[in-house]
Task: structure prediction
Amino acid sequence: MTQATTSPATAGEGGSAERPADLVVALSALVTHLKRRSGDPDTSARAFLLGHVDRLAPVRATDLADATALDLSTISRHLRGLEDAGLLTRSPDPDDRRASLLTVTDEGRVFLADAVRARTALLASATAGWPADDVSTLSALMTRLAHDLETL
Result:
């Protein structure tokens, strides 16, 4: 396991300057390890988009792009693949006939549940030796950080 270290740029600048830099290093390492261990990048991308569609459904592609901070052209390409795979459907938007509303199919929900199970198993394995209180604290702090970032 790699350990985050303080970079020379932040060393000795005081506690408040070091903590955000250390957090950036730790979060970057976490994302890198999760991506590396997740297997197929297409599966991760599909699960990412399907999860957002499932939470926001019915949703327009433009609103999905905003929610995921991805370019609409990138979203559109992935959505075609998800639709071709039978994981989501498009239906006409009753408020704007030029737009479509996206929803996850039953097959898409199975795919999403499988992806969540795999990620859960990965994290459970990584934290198997941790005290339960540490896992609970990490979960609470990550939830708090996500909320605070959302409200900025």
